[in-house]
Design a protein that fits this description.
This protein is of the alpha/beta class. The chain has one domain (8-157): Rossmann fold. It contains 4 helices and 8 strands, in the order βαβαββαβββαβ. Strands 3-2-4-5-6 form a 5-stranded parallel β-sheet, with helices on both faces. It has a 3-stranded antiparallel β-sheet with strand order 1-8-7. Helix 3 (111-123) links the parallel strand 4 (99-107) and strand 5. Helix 1 crosses helix 2. The chain starts with a strand and ends with a strand.
Length: 182
């Protein structure tokens, strides 16, 4: 894969997450009964960043953050060459009566979010579920639309969006990658 373009550096990611944090607080009229759940992997550090940004905006403690592992909920398990790495979900709070903001790095076809919704339903019945993504690249195959988007990026199907986070990649950035011509 070749780097085609850098869409966001660390400052741009911080600005986008701060804007999303403001939108979450505004739409929910504050933070009461609000929790964040990141889709493993890169949705988790994004959820933690949103929690910190919301705490700063509202002058309150950080919102509870959970981790959702969707490995067994994917609809492509039988077609994947490698077996998924299962780490497990970590949601140390009850979902009942809560507004859950599900956080992921990129939304593409919508299938990952469908799997995340199935996994979330197995953990309890939230009052409401909202979706926050850093990048919406289009190409939906399922009727799923995020409530909060950092950046809309039209892409072709042979491009890949790589969201890098300090926790996993040593830096915060968003790149468009292009498959190399054969």
């Amino acid at each position: 894969m070749l780097i085609k373009a850098q869409l966001m550096d660390e400052r741009a990611m911080r600005r986008a997450l701060t804007r999303i944090a403001h939108e979450i607080v505004e739409r929910n009229k504050g933070t009461e009964d609000l929790v964040l759940i990141g889709v493993r992997r890169r949705g988790v550090p994004l959820a933690r960043s949103l929690s910190a940004a919301i705490a700063e905006i509202e002058g309150c403690g950080q919102l509870p953050v959970g981790t959702l592992d969707i490995a067994f909920y994917r609809d492509d398990l039988s077609t994947r060459a490698e077996q998924p790495e299962v780490i497990g979900s970590d949601v140390p709070f009850a979902l009942e009566g809560k507004t859950v903001v599900l956080v992921d790095d990129v939304i593409y076809t919508g299938r990952t979010i469908r799997a995340a919704l199935d996994a979330l339903m197995d953990l309890g019945r939230a009052q409401r579920i909202q979706l926050a993504v850093l990048i919406d690249r289009g190409h939906r195959e399922l009727p799923i639309r995020p409530d909060f988007v950092g950046k809309n990026v039209p892409t072709s199907s042979d491009e890949l969006i790589a969201v890098n986070t300090t926790e996993y990649d040593g830096e915060n950035s968003v790149l468009i990658l292009q498959q190399e011509a054969e």
